[in-house]
Design a protein that fits this description.
The complex is a heterodimer of chains A (about 525) and B (about 160).
Chain A: H1 3-13, E1 18-21, H2 28-34, E2 40-43, H3 47-61, E3 65-69, H4 73-77, H5 79-87, E4 92-98, H6 114-118, E5 124-127, H7 134-145, E6 152-158, H8 159-163, H9 187-199, E7 203-207, H10 210-213, H11 217-227, E8 231-233, E9 248-251, H12 258-266, E10 269-273, E11 292-297, E12 311-314, H13 317-327, H14 335-342, H15 360-370, E13 375-379, H16 383-391, E14 398-400, H17 411-421, E15 426-432, H18 433-436, H19 442-448, E16 454-459, H20 464-473, H21 489-496, E17 499-503, H22 506-518, E18 523-528
Parallel strand pairs in A: 1-2, 1-3, 3-4, 4-6, 5-6, 7-8, 7-10, 8-9, 10-11, 11-12, 13-14, 13-15, 15-16, 16-18, 17-18
Chain B: E1 2-10, H1 15-25, E2 29-37, E3 43-51, H2 54-66, E4 70-76, E5 81-92, H3 98-108, E6 111-116, E7 119-126, H4 128-138, E8 143-148, E9 152-155
Classes of the chains: A alpha/beta (about 525), B alpha+beta (about 160).
Chain lengths: ~525, ~160
């Protein structure tokens, strides 16, 4: 068979039923074979969004998802999505077309060195030069993307290679001598961690995004409940601990809440679970010597990178939690410490909205009230992200956002991917008027493929977070942050044939949200939020 | 602080670019780099001399290990390794000066690889410090060109860095 056909066979063997992409000349042999399969191809309106959609899909299924683009500009457009997935450890296999192998390096039409240019942002990449390597390369790519610390793997396939004839057999097993991700934690360190946990008076768990990628959520909840240890979360870890749990104290960091940041600064033992604690997460953390840090992560390079670890444990989060639970059989109690933190749970009053606006925090809380428990909320980047992260509750739902890279334009395509992965879940993208205009073309994708996502555009006619920064740190000299000239987003939704409603006063909020959730089709709410609410403390 | 790191990698196209790119984008400083195939033709060895604190060294080792094509990373202890560089020096040399330069070469165990009317090409393999000294000794005669390789190094005694 041809390599192009073999590529589709590889996808089938990996259980891939949906892919996201954008065709072009150099990837046509593969698309021609895709025609013969039952694999659903979701045509996005810009390659980067194919990458983000695959990211949303992968975050929901927990397995590598596939994004496809053609050579040159198509592949280059994917780079931001690849980097976004890399920063958030999202498993993805990216397939790109490449010019004929004998033309590589000659600057021919639509040629770009994509393996070279994406190198800093991929877990690994392949330029498939030898047709007979197809099956092995795909097998390895899926294995690498979906194991260890998850991440994107790129496969670049020249046009002539796609058309070559090969014998095809998909390998059942894979063994890469230079890639053996650790699984079990070191027994000695586990013992030390158990002692530290037993001896701690004010222990604290910091839940990170690794709990989702490593399927450790339910075990973490069990661990926290048995040991009665309060839990705070990074932005990527939101939802790992149910919001309603008495052990949960919110998000830490620069945009975190008082209880979480005080907990981090007063605990005596900090247990980091699948959290790399990036600069935003430790922004509010004080340097101190009287705290024992137990850092559990699949990636040894994250341990000791951003925060000193006294007890480093490299391993799969599920297995390591299992090891800890084997030795921590007796329930512990930290009622005094919990009570202390309970006093810090403050619900800041919400400022009433001026005429013609709704308060964005109030809006998210109303959304939260009516959203079914099994929902996916995808926040974009900027003020909308902080308001959503702080005001949405997650008990059986998921919160997706571009936490590491902070990529604007992530929410709508990622929501499309998430909804394609789990059609039973209500999936809501929340974005600002800045980020929405980086991705509004994807409304067409949702309509074309019947992917019923809900979109909330918070409108304040500004790049709100940059504006805040300029107000605080640049003496209020507002430079290039006005979004004057933006269209009516409800009219834009009309043009796409998407049901919509404008919310410009608090009394319209509830009805609009109820209508949106009741709708079985894509739906858009334009919420006028004004520019009076701030996110930077 | 200087660290000598021996890295075994899969002998594929593009591996060196990955390793070099990693150093560049993470801001690790490379003093020297030498690559060559090992006794196993599928495996190459990259010897890197890098400058940085212990924290940087730890990150270098960990980040190198994350590259899929990297099989093994070992930082060699300065007290228990043999390290060598090779230098080729083309030095001006009139027929009259030849005996002087030949005696310098003999003392330093340098080898005369080429000789012509007014210059000599000398090769010397030794540790970095001794190459520097040798270069100083030849400077007064007029150095026309120098080519130096990166450092290669091996642990002393029975220990090896192998796949």
């Amino acid at each position: 068979m041809t390599v192009a056909k073999a590529m589709t066979e590889c996808l089938k063997a990996e259980g891939i039923s949906t892919v996201f992409g954008y065709p072009g000349a150099a990837i046509c042999p593969f698309y021609d074979e895709l025609y013969n399969t039952d694999i659903r191809h979701v045509l996005v309106r810009h390659e980067v969004n194919g990458g983000h959609a695959a990211s949303g899909y992968a975050r929901i299924t927990g397995k590598p998802a596939v994004a496809i683009a053609t050579s040159g500009p198509g592949a280059l457009n994917l780079i931001t999505a690849i980097a976004t997935a890399y920063m958030d450890s999202v498993p993805m296999v990216v397939i790109t077309g490449q010019v004929n192998s004998d033309q590589i390096g000659r600057d021919v039409f639509q040629e770009a060195d994509i393996t070279g240019s994406a190198e800093p942002f991929v877990k690994h990449s392949y330029l498939l030069k030898r047709p007979e390597d197809t099956a092995e390369v795909f097998k390895r790519a899926f294995y690498i993307a979906g194991s260890g610390r998850r991440g994107p793997v790129l496969i670049d396939v020249p046009f002539d290679v796609q058309k070559s004839e090969i014998e095809f057999e998909y390998p059942e097993t894979v063994d890469i001598r230079s890639y053996r991700p650790s699984t079990l934690g070191n027994g000695y360190q586990i013992k030390r961690a158990v002692q530290a946990i037993k001896g701690a008076k004010q222990p604290l768990i910091c839940a990170g995004g690794g709990l989702f990628t490593g399927n450790g959520v339910s075990l973490m909840r069990k661990f926290a409940e048995l040991t009665d240890i309060p839990v705070v979360s990074t932005m990527m870890g939101l939802g790992a601990m149910p919001s309603k749990s008495p052990l949960y104290f919110g998000m830490l960091g620069m945009h975190g809440c008082l209880a979480a940041n005080t907990a981090v600064n007063t605990c005596d033992t900090l247990i980091l679970l699948g959290a790399r604690v990036g600069d935003r997460a430790i922004a509010a953390m004080k340097q101190r010597d009287d705290m024992t840090v137990v850092h559990i992560d699949i990636d040894p390079a994250e341990i000791g990178k951003n925060i000193e670890a006294h007890i480093p444990i490299v391993g799969d989060i599920t297995l390591v939690l299992g090891q800890l639970l084997e030795q921590l059989t007796e329930p512990l109690s930290h009622s005094e410490w919990r009570a202390k933190l309970d006093t810090l749970r403050v619900d800041k009053p919400i400022a009433p909205a001026p005429e013609g606006c709704v308060n964005p925090k109030e809006f998210i809380r109303t959304l939260d009230k009516f959203l079914p428990e099994h929902s996916v909320v995808v926040a974009d980047v900027g003020q909308n992200q902080i308001w959503t992260a702080a005001n949405i509750s997650l008990n059986d739902g998921r919160f997706l956002t571009s936490g590491g890279m902070g990529t604007m334009g992530y929410s709508v395509p990622a929501a499309i991917g998430a909804k394609a992965a789990d059609p039973s879940a209500e999936v809501v993208a929340v974005c600002g008027d800045g980020s929405f205009q980086m991705q509004s073309m994807e409304l067409a994708t949702a309509i074309q493929h019947g992917i019923n996502i809900k979109v909330i555009v918070m409108r304040n006619n500004y790049l709100g977070m940059v504006r805040e920064l300029q107000e605080k740190a640049y003496s209020g000299r507002l430079t290039a942050v006005s979004l004057d000239g933006s269209p009516s987003f409800t009219k834009l939704a009309d043009a796409y044939g998407i049901e919509n409603v404008l919310v410009d006063s608090p009394e319209k909020t509830e009805d609009a949200i109820k209508r949106m959730i009741a709708s079985e089709k894509p739906f858009l709410i334009e919420a006028v939020v004004g520019d009076y609410e701030k996110t930077i403390l | 602080m200087k660290h000598t790191i021996s890295v075994l990698v899969e002998n594929h196209a593009g591996v060196l670019a990955r390793v070099a790119g990693l150093f560049a984008r993470r801001g690790f400083n490379i003093d020297s780099l030498a690559v060559g195939v090992t006794d196993d033709e599928n495996v190459s060895r990259i010897t890197i001399v890098a400058d940085g604190s212990d924290y940087t060294l730890e990150q270098i080792e960990k980040q190198l290990n994350k590259l899929i094509d990297v099989i093994k990373v070992k930082t060699l202890s300065p007290d228990s390794m043999v390290s060598r560089e090779l230098v080729l020096i083309k030095v001006s040399c009139t027929p009259k000066q030849r005996p002087e330069i030949i005696s310098i070469c003999e003392l330093a165990q340098g080898k005369i690889s080429d000789i012509c009317a007014n210059s000599m090409t000398i090769e010397l393999s030794d540790c970095k410090q001794r190459l520097d000294n040798f270069e100083e000794l030849l400077k007064p005669y007029g150095i026309k060109e120098i080519v130096r390789t990166g450092t290669i190094a091996m642990q002393k005694g029975e220990q090896t860095v192998r796949v």
